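REQUEST ID: PR-0412
SUBMITTED BY: lab tech R.K.
PRIORITY: routine
TASK: structure prediction, single protein chain
INPUT:
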Amino acid sequence: MSNPFDNAMAQLEKALQIKSINTNLAQKLHYPDRDIRIHIPISMDDGSTRIFEGYRVQYDNTLGPYKGGIRYHQDADINEVKALAFWMTIKCAIAGIPMGGGKGGIKVNPKDLSEKEIERLSRGWVQKLSDVIGPHKDVPAPDVNTTPLIMSYMVDEYEKITGDTSGAVITGKPIDKGGSEGRGPATGLGGFYVFETLRGKIGLPEKCKVVVQGFGNVGFNGAKIFAQHGHSIIAVSDSKGGVYNENGLDLEKLADHKKNTGSLADFEGSKNISNEELLALPCDVLAPSAFENVITKENVHSIQAKVILELANGPVTPEADDILFSKNIAVIPDVLANSGGVTVSFFEWDQNLKNEHWTEKDVFDKLQEYMQSASLAVWQKKEEYNTSLRVGAFLLALERIGEKMKVLK
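STATUS: complete
OUTPUT:
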């Protein structure tokens, strides 16, 4: 399996080959500012104690406080978290928000824990890190397998330890705990705004056939938003496999089917397919919305999509990226395509600090402005340097971080 941090650095190097930047910045971006590993002892429901390994990587805070989610996953490791923190640094710069890049994780399968054990684990993570997170230092958020409820445990624990009552230390909270309207669908909706801004420039039709890999929050919301705007979702999948109907799937009925049966399989009027088959389907848009390293040099030649919209982080490896570029298959990169989540997280942080609460319409209108502006700026860099959208995105981010570094000196 490809090391995600090596992939992230390969992407950085590709941008640095096209445009020379401040040497200090180029050096700095190869290393996180801080790379923290913690061990959290938790009392289990049976009276035993288990030790869980956790991480927080604070990558770069040139533009503002570190910002990034915390994931609970049995395969979480420091290289993955470092890569995600680096991508978040780039993502915030592209989105034009005054925040830097961070990421966290705990090596755990949350399905193995009770709700009370998850609460103790979440509070334990904050206890170990309360001195290095904070509204003006580092602002965590939900990620894979973490929820608004888990964020509420964390913000409550931070308040107990520090006395800070702003709630701005954590985003992705429940609405009644200071969360923002519109945070749930923000990543999928942001991805749609990016797609709509670039669709005509890339040469896609007004109504597209869309394939979505991943049926969690991002994948399901993304698929639903595309369908609501008249696009046809012809296939979706989760970790176990997927379903395909060339005439389009009814997503609400499919969600009910999964809830009732525990699986997408055998949905009425559709054909069961594997994730490998799903990736190879002919379509206008393929949206990988789950994990890293999904499209690799081994399977890239089977891709028949016209455009890949990276709603997940790091789903296309650098080798596959080069091959897709040579085949004129546009990749709308994760650092642009899925930046809607961190943008609305920034909105939540801003609301908390100002003690405001914006309507969902205000949030979505602001999100659309940010996503359109970022998309057009990335497209301009891509055209200026005759390169891929990903390299254009990186060049934009490097310029913005470099300009702020000059101001700070």
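NOTES: The chain is about 45% helix and 20% strand.
REVIEWED BY: pending
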